[in-house]
Recover the amino acids of this structure.
């Protein structure tokens, strides 16, 4: 090669036998920049390869991330889908409803001064009477049963109109006003001081509130199922006829009005209009 710093450079190509085969004439300035061109091309190639490798790496990362997200999504779907299943939601709803009603029953009992009963065993046995029922049907059965129980307990006179000892029981006794003869006592008498609270023993509506012969100031409450309670000899009445009263609600105050020998509460339970022994309505076990 013969390179001269002239405007034009001649490049002579020789074969193995040093015989002249070809000669090229190029501008010298281009020849001088040949290294620059070479580096330029090399730089571009390096950049391209680098870029390709970088993009490939990025893509791999994204793929991995995508896989991870998909796995999490499937997991989440599973977690969300489970409660949507009929069994999951229904069972929870029915159980909650049942528990609510049992709490209500225990509340009724507590207000009457009685101990609530245990909720153990509800939902485990009982409804398994031959035919195989679905979980949902079992829950529905219990729910319906408890619904009736709530109503029955709420509207059945139970417990004490006031917490104190009896001074007189239901049945025949010697007449306190006429010694030597017997009289029928249609209720039970509770000890008390004038002004002590007298509480209704079940939900119901007031059918009488006022002076009632020998009973003096008297309140009668109808509870459905042909049951009625009567509170006599009151010093004060605080309810009116037609008023709805709830179990445990105050209806009046202890007194000694009417045919009475001393301050006490006369309490009656009437079934179909006839007095029955209130002792049978003092606890759940009767
Ligand atoms: Zn009495």
């Amino acid at each position: 090669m013969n390179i001269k710093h002239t405007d034009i450079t001649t490049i002579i190509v020789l074969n193995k036998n040093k015989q002249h085969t070809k000669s090229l004439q190029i501008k010298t300035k281009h020849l001088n920049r040949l290294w620059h061109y070479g580096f330029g091309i090399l730089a571009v190639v390096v950049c391209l390869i680098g870029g390709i490798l970088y993009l490939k790496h990025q893509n791999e990362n994204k793929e991995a991330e995508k896989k991870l997200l998909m796995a999490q999504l499937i997991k989440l779907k599973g977690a969300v889908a489970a409660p949507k299943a009929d069994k999951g939601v229904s069972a929870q709803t029915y159980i909650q409803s049942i528990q609510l009603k049992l709490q209500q029953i225990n509340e009724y009992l507590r207000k009457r001064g009685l101990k609530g009963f245990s909720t153990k065993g509800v939902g485990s046995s009982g409804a398994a009477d031959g035919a195989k029922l679905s979980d949902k049907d079992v829950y529905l059965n219990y729910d319906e049963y408890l619904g009736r129980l709530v109503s029955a307990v709420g509207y059945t006179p139970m417990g004490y109109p006031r917490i104190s000892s009896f001074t007189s029981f239901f049945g025949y006794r010697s007449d306190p006003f006429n010694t030597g003869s017997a009289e029928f006592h249609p209720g039970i008498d509770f000890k008390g001081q004038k002004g002590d609270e007298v509480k209704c023993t079940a939900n119901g509506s007031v059918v009488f509130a006022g002076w009632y012969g020998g009973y003096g100031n008297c309140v009668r409450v109808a509870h459905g199922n042909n049951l009625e309670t009567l509170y006599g000899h009151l010093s004060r009445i605080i309810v009116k006829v037609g008023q709805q009263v709830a179990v445990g609600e105050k209806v009046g105050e202890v007194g000694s009005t009417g045919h009475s020998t001393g301050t006490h509460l006369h309490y009656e339970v009437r079934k179909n209009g006839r007095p029955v022994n209130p002792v049978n309505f003092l606890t759940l076990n009767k």
Summary: The longest helix spans residues 34-84. The chain has a mean pLDDT of 82.
